[in-house]
Description:
Layout: H1 5-11, H2 18-25, H3 37-58, H4 64-74, H5 77-86, H6 97-101, H7 108-126, H8 128-142, H9 148-151, H10 155-167, E1 172-179, E2 186-193, E3 196-203, H11 206-224
Antiparallel strand pairs: 1-2, 2-3
Helix pairs in contact: 2-7, 3-4, 3-7, 3-8, 5-7, 7-8, 10-11
Amino acid sequence: MSDYSKLEKCLGYQFKNKDLIIEALTHKSLKKPYNNERLEFLGDAVLNLIVGEYLYLNFPTSNEGELSKIRASLVNETGFTKLANEIRLGDYIYISTAEERNKGRTKASILSDAFEAIMGAIYLESGLEVLKPIILNLLRSTYDKINLDVLFSDYKTALQEITQAQFGSIPEYRIEGSYGPDHKKEFEVSIWIDGVKYGQAKGKSKKLAQQAVAKIAIDKFKEIN
Length: 225
């Protein structure tokens, strides 16, 4: 049996049932009678709940839309991959030889799924109150600050890299309008790439609106590709 003591130390949790951690770390490519897909399903649900509760309690002035945006920025493949890398999860996963050759240990999809599965396994064994501080400690150690500005900061840069590679151009952001009094103004911005409109979004500042619409465009590119 592998030594999971370093992983458990990073998590601040020791598994009582070692079969559970093995299942959580086993990718479907290994063709075992078990894999981590069911635990991943469970982990996704409890992560949504824990992060949702954290945001509700810590952002009392944010509305439902803002809370949803922040949660969506944390509870996704990219966010879970960051958390997985924080505990070096790639060192422990079980994958097939083919996936090993394809650098599966660094693939976002595999790391993200394994992270969800590990969290699902802890929840299954010890419940929500034990899992909650583990998740929150990981979030705090991974992100210097949790808010819309910080979490959306990479979308414009990421999109520009995509459009330069595919079209040889950069996105154009157009202000479609602004609403409300000066102290509570909201901006609406559209995004155009190579002459085509890819989306429109609102934000409390031009910067936030641009970041939000850049994310919409990135999501569309992911669907196309």
